[in-house]
Amino acid sequence: MFFTKRCAACGSPGQPVLCHRCRFSIASVGAARTPHGIRAVFPFEGLPRELVVALKFRHRRDAARVLAGQMVRRLPLGQIDVVTWAPTSARRARRRGYDQAEAIAQAVARELGVPCRRLLYRAHGTAQTGKSRADRLVGPAFRARQPRAGLSVLVVDDVVTTGATLLAAAQALRSAGVAHVELVAAASAQRRQHAVVELRPVPS
Fold it and tell me: Is the distance from CB of 18 to CB of 58 less than 8 angstroms?
């Protein structure tokens, strides 16, 4: 018998997304430390790290459903009108065939029963993946669509390290008139307090 599906975390065959052992294990993972008030479900290590890596680099888009379900169940999100995401660079999205943050955001929106809309566009610069910590402290620049007044927007990302990306996303949305912005990530790679991030101004 040949199995076409494997557990996205441990690789055991015959599993749709997570095997029974990994489903049990993920429930016992403790809370993550996050920078600048950004909330994350898991630390970027162990099983959660394997799920994020599977989503980003192994084409396991189904891992987004697991991460999104945990985000909605574990984080007190409050009233959300629209879910959006911090987009990766166009080059990385083309290479993967999708934007992993968008995949998580769409799954979160389905869990919450609210729309998922693209409200942010990367203005310039490259993806944060692979950069040094010093380079990550300089956040990417985003442009934001002007949404309907009074909205509460949830911005989703896969991994938060310094917080630069999500803070830049929040800055762009608030400048566009969004009333309330919440920032969440599936995992946090923070191990110690980082310096204050530097946000690049959005070019006019």
Answer: no
Q: For 48-86, how does the pLDDT look when each residue is reduced to its tens digit (9 = 90+)?
A: 999 999 999 999 999 999 999 999 999 989 899 999 999
Residue 147, both tokens? 């949404």
In order, the DSSP letters of 170-188 are: HHHHHHTT-SEEEEEEEEE
- Residue 28 identity: S
∠ at Cα 13 (11, 15), nearest 5°? 90
Give dist(CA 22, CA 203) in Å, integer: 45
* Number of domain units in the chain: 1
In a domain, 8, yes or no: no
What pTM value is reported for the model?
Answer: 0.84
Tokens of 158: 């896969």
**Domain boundaries, position 138:** 20-24+31-199
CB 22, CB 16: distance < 8 Å: no
Q: Is 10 within 8 Å of 21 (Cβ atoms)?
A: yes
Other CB atoms within a 10 A radius of the CB of residue 203 amount to 8
Output the domain CATH number for residue 90. Answer: 3.40.50.2020
Domain presence at residue 10: no
Give pLDDT tens digits for 157-169. Answer: 999 999 999 999 9
